[in-house]
Amino acid sequence: MLVFLLLPLLGQAETSRNYAENAQARDFADYMVREHGFEAVDLQALLGEATYKQSIIDAMNRPAEKVKEWKDYREIFVTEKRLRQGIEFWQAQRATLERAEAEFGVPPQIVVAIIGVETYYGRITGSYRVIDALTTLAFDYPRRSKFFTRELENFLLLSREQGLNPLNLKGSYAGAMGFGQFMPSSYRAYAVDYNEDGVADIWTDPVDAIGSVANYFHRHGWRTGDEVAVRARIAGEYQPENINKVVKPYMDLSALADQGFTPVDESLSADTRAIPLKLQGRKGVEFWLGLHNFYVITRYNTSFRYAMAVNQLSEKLLEQMANAAP
Asked: Which of 108, 265, 269, 271 is 20 to 30 A from 175 via CA?
């Protein structure tokens, strides 16, 4: 492994390394042969084609949702162009979105906002070969090696199940795929064949993508009709230690009030549970309470900024869709 770690320092191009002789990759191949019946010669050839990408490691170390302030992060996603194209997508897929809402209880604006944030409604689905992303992160990113090794396992199983060539499939630098940017394990667990053509295709089929995103939220506990987040007032000496922690809401409004946070919306039930949020907005600091559905959004991406971007884009989409109605 040491020689692999040194190669970038020696000025080697990132495309000069493959995983045919990597010890971890060989162990992984043995596991796939033993546990899933893959052919050893096929896996050896596949791993020989998979290529290390330093740019993937670099991207993993500086994701926008962790390094940008909310005011800057929001401006990436809540834009007039993304809203306009979101309305176009909603109108084109209205029947499917309404069907998904009836079946899964997830409103159209949330599904459209997710697909809008993830891929600009299918326009930008990623330029990395998924095999390169997942091998790089499984075998050369120790901090999350176990996670990405499991995703590589699921990716190869998915490719076999759908009769796809794993060398041809592209996605994000983290190996996320399709309209909704599902990781391979999520694809296998939550993707649905929503147009009933025999295959769950979230790569190119917006109908399957809509059904799959709605199914994902339904399976993670989306509460129909509930809000996502509400503005909060703060007392002068609020307690900051629990702010912006992405956890399942466990404090009710009374406990939050004891820590200095009260919702602006006074109609919320006393037993409502929430997490306190502090965001740096364009006009100053904003305080919010993230509710249960906010937490559900973070099951898609574990970032409070991401969840808030989805929420605010969804609200703008709903508002503009209402104005666009005949």
From this structure: 108
Inside any domain, residue 249:
no
pTM: 0.91
Q: Which domain holds residue 159?
A: 2-52+126-176
Strands (E), 79-185: 128-129, 170-171
**Does residue 239 sit within a domain?**
no
- Residue among 319, 317, 296, 321 nearest 306 (CA): 296
| Cβ atoms within 10 Å of 21's Cβ, excluding its own | 12
Phi, psi of 224 (to 5 degrees): -60, 130
Q: Which residues contact 9 (CB under 8 A, 6 or more apart)?
A: none
Q: Is 266 an active-site residue? A: no
For residue 276, the 8-state DSSP code is: E
Provide the residue type at 236 as one letter. Answer: G
Total domain count, the chain: 1
* Residue 252 · residue 273 · CB < 8 Å: yes
**Candidate list 101, 118, 153, 227, residue with the active-site label:** 118
Report yes or no on 202 lying in a domain.
no
The pLDDT profile of the chain, 326 residues, written as one tens digit per residue, is 333 333 333 334 444 578 988 999 999 999 999 999 999 999 999 999 999 999 999 999 987 667 789 999 999 999 999 999 999 999 999 999 999 999 999 999 999 999 999 999 999 999 999 999 999 999 999 999 999 999 999 999 999 999 999 999 999 999 999 999 999 999 999 999 999 999 999 999 999 999 999 999 999 999 999 999 999 999 878 888 889 999 999 999 999 999 999 999 989 999 999 999 999 999 999 999 999 999 999 999 999 999 999 999 999 999 999 887 66
